[in-house]
Amino acid sequence: MQDDRQSVEQALNMLPKPSGARLARVRNTFDLKALWVSRALLPEFSAKPGLTVFGSPLNLVFEESGRLQPL
């Protein structure tokens, strides 16, 4: 793959229902205080005791170069 955008698009295109992809994006695996989850995974995370959802759903944002923007 040339960039992050192509990698994500190709992975999602392999799924029978890409809009139902259960994704998580972690900035730092040593510090799991905050992470991004897909809309499909949000209900499960919202139901877990001790987890708090901040903000509203956002799309993945890519830079012009095709790289994912930092969290």
Q: Care to describe what's here?
A:
The chain is an alpha+beta fold. The protein has one domain. Helices cover 21% and strands 8% of the residues. A two-stranded antiparallel sheet has the order 1-2. The mean pLDDT is 90.
Defining key terms:
single chain; 71 residues; alpha+beta; two-stranded antiparallel ribbon; 2 helices; 2 strands; 8% strand; globular
Query: Could you give a short account of the major beta sheet?
Result: 2 strands, antiparallel
Adjacency order of strands in the biggest sheet: 1-2
Encode the helix/strand succession as letters: HEEH
Distance between the termini: 22 Å
Unreliable residue runs: none
Mean pLDDT: 90
Count of all domains: 1
**Beta-strand residue fraction:** 5-15%
Structural class: alpha+beta
Helical residue percent? Answer: 10-25%
What is the 3D form?
Answer: globular
Number of helices: 2
Q: Would you report the number of β strands?
A: 2
Instruction: Please compute the radius of gyration using only Cα atoms.
Output: 13 Å
